[in-house]
Design goal:
Elements lengths: L2 H10 L6 E3 L5 E3 L1 H13 L2 E3 L8 E3 L14 E2 L5 E2 L4 E2 L4 E2 L4 E2 L4 E2 L4 E2 L4 E2 L4 E2 L4 E2 L4 E2 L12 E2 L4 E2 L4 E2 L4 E2 L4 E2 L4 E2 L5 E3 L4 E2 L10 E9 L3 H5 L3 E10 L2 H6 L2 H4 L2
Parallel strand pairs: 5-8, 6-9, 7-10, 8-11, 9-12, 10-13, 11-14, 12-15, 13-16, 14-17, 15-18, 16-19, 17-20, 18-21, 20-24, 22-25
Antiparallel strand pairs: 1-2, 3-4, 22-23, 24-25
Length: 250
């Protein structure tokens, strides 16, 4: 077994992750894990699959994973796929169609709803809800770039997009349609501040889509605005109660 094969197998078992958290709570890319994925792509040869995947062509060494009841994962029929090298914990539910790419980590009790994407190396915590059409971006290169992180108990509403290594801390709620990237500013209306570039979405923050005026005389004359995200509150007992219904569906 080559080194990349061993690392991918460890990632698939949840023993190695594409990003790790230090004692201060900061996340860092695992360069060795990402190098193993790139090595797998380089070593792979395109083949035509048969059986359940007849008609598909992909790298021979990165096939879709096969689950059994012993894995404790509920992968509902209808076109979902989990690529080799991705970890999916017991108690995860994947609704069709959804896709979990190589190097991703999905913690126990998480819901991956229809049309959701968990990109390569993205790290999703425990008891997270990824609603319909949520897009979690992946990253392989540059090799030291950290992936998107969604920590435990976060709730991402329908159509949320999170890319470019954004970190969502524990218990945060993103309303439907929120888009977060390195370039999209986030304003905390509770604490009257703008988050620093690269600063994580705080724990238990409730985030909604927003806009802000575009600078420049001509832009202002046209009434133009650009997207941003707004933290309008932090979760309390009332907002927690509104999210309890989805637990019944597990």
């Amino acid at each position: 077994m080559t080194n990349w094969q061993a690392v991918l197998q460890q990632m698939e078992h949840g023993e190695v992750r594409a990003a790790t958290q230090d004692e201060q709570g900061h996340w860092h890319a695992n360069v060795e894990a990402k190098q193993a994925i790139l090595a797998a792509f380089k070593a792979g040869e395109n083949i035509a699959f048969d059986g359940n995947y007849q008609g598909f062509v992909d790298k021979h060494n990165l096939p879709a994973r096969q689950f059994t009841p012993a894995d404790g994962v509920r992968l509902v029929p209808g076109g979902s796929s989990v690529r080799a090298g991705a970890y999916v914990a017991p108690g995860v539910i994947v609704m069709p169609p959804a896709y979990i790419n190589v190097g991703a980590y999905v913690g126990k009790g998480t819901m991956v709803d229809s049309h959701a994407l968990v990109g390569s190396c993205a790290q999703i915590g425990e008891n997270v809800h990824l609603s319909a059409a949520v897009q979690i971006g992946g990253v392989l290169e540059p090799i030291g770039a950290s992936p998107v992180i969604v920590e435990d108990d976060a709730f991402l509403g329908a159509g949320v997009v999170v890319v470019e290594g954004v970190v969502i801390k524990k218990g945060a709620v993103l309303a439907p349609g929120v888009s977060l990237s390195a370039a999209i500013p986030v304003f905390d209306l509770v604490n009257n501040r703008r988050l620093e570039k690269g600063e994580p979405i705080p724990e238990r923050a409730v985030v909604i889509p927003g806009t802000r005026p575009v600078t420049g005389e001509w832009a202002q004359q046209q009434g133009l605005s650009m997207a941003c995200a707004l933290i309008v509150k932090y979760r309390d007992e009332q907002s927690d109660a509104s999210l309890e219904l989805e637990a019944v569906l597990r």
